[in-house]
């Protein structure tokens, strides 16, 4: 991601006359809008990898506190990049903690995927219609419910041949997503 960013941004900075020494470092605190997710994912991945040897009872509350701080400090409308990293990291860490659980346990309940998906859609709609500014105590459980519903749906769809087609389509279109 950094190499792609530098390939795009350094020539642009040269054309615009912005040749300050810190210009390439902007990828880490103010990436372009088209690459913010990839940069945030890279930073969150490095952070999670570094923290995986620390006990989860220390790391998870700290990451959730960062999530809460980010929502309370920056709100929802176009938060700065560091806040986006704070919002992504707890979910990546919880995914690391629950990977084997998701693989083994969730597949047993994959036939029930319509329940969490429907519940998520209803609660998200109610949240949007009734609350002016969402709060962390609503968004965190809704996000986890949505993630669980999506994982269960994917586990269910893996039983069918169409899953191979969809997987191939995703595999060969990933570069399009990364570039956009």
Secondary structure elements and pairings:
Elements lengths: L1 H15 L19 H16 L4 H19 L6 H24 L9 H17 L5 H22 L4 H18 L1
Helix pairs in contact: 2-4, 3-4, 5-6
Succession of helices and strands: HHHHHHH
Note the gap between the termini: 12 Å
What's the number of helices? 7
If you compute it from the alpha carbons, what radius of gyration comes out, rounded to the nearest whole angstrom? 19 Å
Strand content: under 5%
- Uncertain runs are none
Oligomer: single chain
Average pLDDT rating = 78
Largest sheet: none
Number of E strands: 0
- Helical proportion, percent range: over 70%
Structural class: mainly alpha
Outline type: globular
Written overview of the protein:
It is a single chain. The chain is mainly alpha-helical and about 180 residues long. The protein is built from 7 helices and no strands. The two termini are about 10 Å apart.
Features:
180 residues, 7 helices, globular
Summarize the structure.
With 180 residues, the protein is mostly helical. 73% of the residues lie in helices and 0% in strands.
